[in-house]
Design brief:
2 domains, two-stranded antiparallel sheet, globular
């Protein structure tokens, strides 16, 4: 069962496949919105802007911390796990901050994430992050402005 929702409508469709073809059939090739999804690789082929589920990302970070891994992977997962919380706190304070202050804080969070997640696909695969950062968008919201 697939569910596609907006603020106004929810569409359900039954399909046994978990593939990008289902998303493309329901949303269309020209979908101009933001696809909110987990880190399943089937969502990556369509050319949609994506917001990966922060809960899935945080669970992945915590799972890495529980497994015996290289110190580098453990440090990376702790740093990445802290970013969504910072973004949520910033969003809660958005109306209390001047626009310029909010935009600067968004830029700092974005820069911190960019420093943590390497651009090279081979390094992402090595670190186990390829599916969660394949189409990284904004950490704060679809648009920080």
């Amino acid at each position: 069962m697939w569910a596609v929702t907006t603020e106004a409508v929810t569409v359900y469709t039954g399909d046994c496949r978990r593939s990008h073809e289902v998303a493309e059939r329901v949303l269309g090739r020209d979908f101009a919105g933001v696809l909110g999804c987990d880190c399943f690789l089937a969502y990556d082929p369509p050319p949609y802007r994506q917001q990966k589920c922060l809960g899935h990302l945080q669970r992945r970070c915590h799972a890495i911390q529980e497994e015996p891994r290289l110190a580098e992977a453990l440090a990376l997962s702790r740093q990445v796990a802290a970013l969504p919380g910072g973004a949520v706190q910033l969003l809660r304070r958005r109306d209390d901050l001047p626009t310029e202050g909010y935009e600067r804080a968004c830029a700092r969070l974005e820069a911190a994430l960019d420093r943590l997640l390497p651009a090279e696909p081979a390094m992402r695969r090595r670190r186990g992050w390829s599916s969660c950062c394949a189409s990284r968008g904004s950490l704060c919201s679809p648009s920080c402005t």
